Amino acid sequence: MATAMGATALPAMVKHYRPPGKKNEGNAARFITRSKAIKQLQVSLPLFRKVCILKGVFPREPKKKVKGNHHTYYHLKDVSYIQHEPLLEILREIRAYQHKVKKAEAKKNPDRATLLRQRSPAYKLDKIVLQRYPKFLDALRDLDDCLTMVHLFAALPAIEGCIEVKRIHNCRRLAHEWQAYISRTHRLRKVFVSVKGIYYQAEVKGQKVTWLAPHPLQQVVTDDDDFNIMLNFLEFYEALLAFANCHLYHSINVKYPPILDPRLEALAADHYALSRYFDANSRSSAWDCQESSLSGSGKVESQQIGPLVDESELRLAQLQHQLSSNEPGALMHLVEDVPGEDEEDNDTRECKKLFKDMKFFLNREVYRDSLLFIIPAFGGIVSWQGDGAPFEEDDDSITHQIIDRPRQDGKICGREYVHPQWVYDCVNARIILPTGNYLMGRDPPPHLSPFVDNDSFETEGVINRAEAEAEVAKEKRKKMKAHEKQHHHELIMELEGVTDSSSISNIDNLSADREEPDHDYEQVEEDNRIMSEIELSRWVRGVIEGMRISRQRKKHLDDVIRQRRRNLRRT
Predict the structure, then answer these.
(1) 42 vs 39, 350, 365, 407, CA distance in Å?
(2) What's the domain range around 90?
(3) What whole-number distance in Å separates Cα of residue 14 and Cα of residue 72?
(4) In this predicted model, what pLDDT tens digit does every residue of 28-55 receive, in sequence order?
């Protein structure tokens, strides 16, 4: 019985011995170094970086670095995710074709090299964008870096062998399409001009999107700059922004990509061309809606789908050529109440009416692209000095002219000549500020950041208080000037030995009755307004209070010395 039981018993589990350096547990099993990942994928380092950027795979920081701190680690699941990517095989084929092209060029066979370039495999990033952003709101949350990169390359010069002209033009087109949508729907909220560039913030589908656009200066690119990594990011960002623009344009019933006037494109008037495209497309969509509503039955509608589409396309093309460049209806303002447009919130209605019934003209020294984007976004009409402009400088309906240098010729009556900062401050304050502080020849007030909670932008009450305190400032200035002149005359008469009190009183009366010029009072009003609008720190307030106390002590000492001198003369 014992033998039978022993025959049926299971054999004991034998635990095999494993050397301590061969264990694959914990971080060693979850993370892999970059060199091992490259060997596993059988790709080069630049190709590995490009695939990681396109797929959104980034290095990890494990708690315990098994191979040391000088290695870069990736998660093993991320490497397996890249290994089964079809794009990886296409990139390998492209690399093989590049070797064939170099070989043909080395053998001085240009025909074969040209043929190989034409047959080189291509790829698209549509599926990758969809995999990384299943929902459109996810894409909107990641648009900050995308827009900043696209606007940066739109301002860079072309570099042979590095940055192609076609890529720069594509970045400029995508940036203008995004700005045209924001301006069309009045979604711009904040603008700030800094040393780095111009910061913009828009609210799209409830998401705040912030990006940085460089200043319109000549960019100097040195040989030390490595654009390989940036170009890999830019390749993905171009596809992402194109998908975002397409979705946003379709949300307001506008066809994408837009068909622009080639004459305006040649004149670098892309903003104006896009606004005309919106105008024409909105009219055509409105006509199509009217025709579809007038159709009889469903069968008739189904039979007329093809002709209606063709007619709308033809009508859109005709409108593009029929709209004159000087037509008032095709100016920088955009059509309202477009079918399919999202419902406007309170901020959008407020921004839409900020520059309503205002007409701006930009001098040639002013940064044109930024103001052409901002002013229509807040309901204004704008033109510029140059070819392709909607209206000229001598238009009588212009209310504000933006200048940045003193004018040599005369000014036109009934028109405000202001600094460009006035537009940005009005946008951030959401009210029309007085133009007295922004006239040419005067130092404008500090341009504060709207991205920081600052009470100085709530300027409506401040302006009312400043207007009420203007008269008080005038009187104080008069009395101060009168006391200074009285003190000056008393000192002169003391030096000359004159003690006639009547002459002193006459001088005092004359100085008190004399009025000061108006420009001093205006300067006082400006100073009081600026000081009231600026939120000073505790240290600055302490310094100003100390200066005020020292002035009062000095004035008190002067009064004591003057009184002692009078007493000495009387004795």
Answers:
(1) 5, 58, 55, 66
(2) 27-119
(3) 38
(4) 678 888 999 999 998 899 999 999 999 9
Instruction: Count the domains in the chain.
Output: 4
Q: What is the C-alpha to C-alpha distance for residues 249 and 285, in angstroms, rounded to an integer?
A: 13
Q: What is the distance between the alpha carbons of residues 135 and 431, in angstroms, rounded to a whole number?
A: 36
Closest CA to 190 of 182, 181, 305, 360: 182
Q: Is residue 493 part of a domain?
A: no
CA dist 491 and 493 (Å) reads 5
* pLDDT per position as a tens digit, 128-179: 999 999 999 999 999 999 999 999 999 888 887 788 889 999 999 999 999 9
End residue of a domain, out of 449, 478, 494:
449
β 31-33/73-75 pair status: antiparallel
Rounded to an integer, what distance in angstroms lies between the CA atom of residue 448 and that of residue 192? Answer: 8
Considering the domain architecture, whether residues 148 and 243 belong to the same structural domain is answered as yes
The verdict on 131 and 279 lying in the same domain is yes
Residues 229 and 91 in one domain: no
- pTM of the full structure: 0.66
Q: Is 202 helix (H, G, I), strand (E, B) or coil?
A: strand
Q: Are 383 and 362 in contact (CB under 8 A)?
A: yes
Among 93, 119, 145, give the residue marking a domain's end: 119
* CA distance readout (Å), 203 to 126, 133, 252, 427, 526: 25, 19, 16, 15, 34
| Beta carbons of 376 and 182 less than 8 angstroms apart | no
Residue 237's pLDDT band, with cuts at 50, 70 and 90, is very high
Q: Which of 133, 181, 139, 175 is nearest to 154 (CA)?
A: 175
Mind listing the pLDDT tens digit for each residue in 68-112? 888 888 988 889 888 888 888 888 888 888 889 999 989 888 898
- The answer as to whether 456 is a domain residue is no
d(Cα 183, Cα 373) in Å, to the nearest integer?
6
How far is 179 from 177, CA to CA, in rounded Å? 5
- Residue 92: give its domain's CATH number: 1.10.1660
